[in-house]
Amino acid sequence: MESTKAIKRGTRILTEKPFAFVLKSKYRLERCDNCLEAAKVLKCSNCRYVSYCNRACQQAAWPLHKHECPFLKRVQPRVVPDAGRMLCRLILRLEHGGDLERGYYTEHGSRKFRDLMSHYAEIKNDAQRVEHLDSLHAVLTDMMIDSNSRSTVPNKTELMSIYGRLITNGFNILDAEMNSIGTAIYLGVSITDHSCQPNAVATFEGNELHVHATEDMPSLDWSKIFISYIDLLNTPEQRREDLKAHYYFLCVCSKCIDPQEQLDMNAAVCQGCAAAIDVEQPKCQCCNASVTAEQRQNYTETMSLTQSSLDAMKDVAYLDMCKVCLKKQSGVLHSLNVWHVKTLDAAFEAAIDVGKWSDALDYGQRLLPGFAKYHGAWNPLLGLLHMKLGKIQLYERNYKHAVHHLQEAHRILNVTHGRGHRLLHEQLQPLMLQARQEMSL
Ligand SMILES: [Zn+2]
Ligand SMILES: [Zn+2]
Ligand SMILES: [Zn+2]
Ligand SMILES: [Zn+2]
């Protein structure tokens, strides 16, 4: 039975502990394997593979870790791929009663691991997935050997059904700044479908998942609750590709079927009236100015430079490279062209990295409309952008602007993370207090 009580924007509609989770291996020496907190950590004295922030965390992790500990010890000093470690944990979890465990999404509605979609047939026919699973199978075979020297890896059919559920239902655990720090399976929340125009959002506190409503809802009806599985700062074409490759479905959300969305995201700017235009059209729809061959040529060159530069900066953004792109885009791409927005995003992060605060402020301000349009008005990334802008303004002693951005951040993060979240207590509220104090001096 579903609750018939109306849900207000900002209400937490689900709190869930993971069925299984792993910390990303690259954080092994700086975060706790149990609570995922960044801290001074101490290694498990047996496997020396995982670390904990304190004894309480080590003890809390032991019931599960004790099964994997000898396996991790076997492969030391090699690092197990994150997906391999996750599979190992899932196998162990299922071996020790996890197949009966339920994750609840309402008082009475629940799911078990076997209720999760596995997309078995699609995965079996996906050469890349099969190859990936084969490599993980080899890792597990090396690792999962019991005290009688027997392999405890399930047969390939079983392994593929577990792998399929992991691929289709796995969540990235995000830290407060929305960086991925781990992978997890949550049973209850797996009921939630995807939309590129979601009405709910998943955020995390440690390894605990929280889902908050970002729109008012007449009642708690999980068939009408959607979160986004993917990066929304992408064209419908890319989003559909991502969803198809990862989740094996074709998105038919209102945004994906709206042809205007694709046009807006790739728009050039009209030389006459600065409206968004489609360079394939002969004229601007607004002012009738002709689109010249030169303009088309320029557009094609700019888009290709931008796309190849963004590709090259996938892992780390360079301020100089961003500046070259932004210069080329000026007067060619519309301000809401998604590739321009992505470039601003990269430039903003790169400027922060090298401490160029006035550059960062400029890029960040220009980023706001694009973020609001594509991520949506109630998205954590928009809230975090305001928080970063507020922080920089505070640095630059522009207290009035700082307070404005911090208030905006608070308005959004209060909904997406909830008022009790540490991000608000430990970061946002102290900044706000400081900005107000400085302003009144
Ligand atoms: Zn801990
Ligand atoms: Zn251990
Ligand atoms: Zn969609
Ligand atoms: Zn025009």
UniProtKB/TrEMBL annotation:
Pfam families: zf-MYND. GO terms for cellular component: nucleus. The keyword NAD does not apply. GO terms for molecular function: zinc ion binding. InterPro entries: H3K4_H4K5_MeTrfase (IPR050869), SET_dom_sf (IPR046341), TPR-like_helical_dom_sf (IPR011990), Znf_MYND (IPR002893). Keywords: Metal-binding, Zinc, Zinc-finger. The keyword Metal-binding applies. PROSITE patterns: ZF_MYND_1, ZF_MYND_2. Residues 32-69 form the MYND-type domain. Gene3D superfamilies: 1.10.220.160, 1.25.40.970, 6.10.140.2220, SET domain (2.170.270.10), Tetratricopeptide repeat domain (1.25.40.10). PANTHER family: EG:BACR7C10.4 PROTEIN, HISTONE-LYSINE N-METHYLTRANSFERASE SMYD. This is Bzd. It comes from Drosophila busckii.
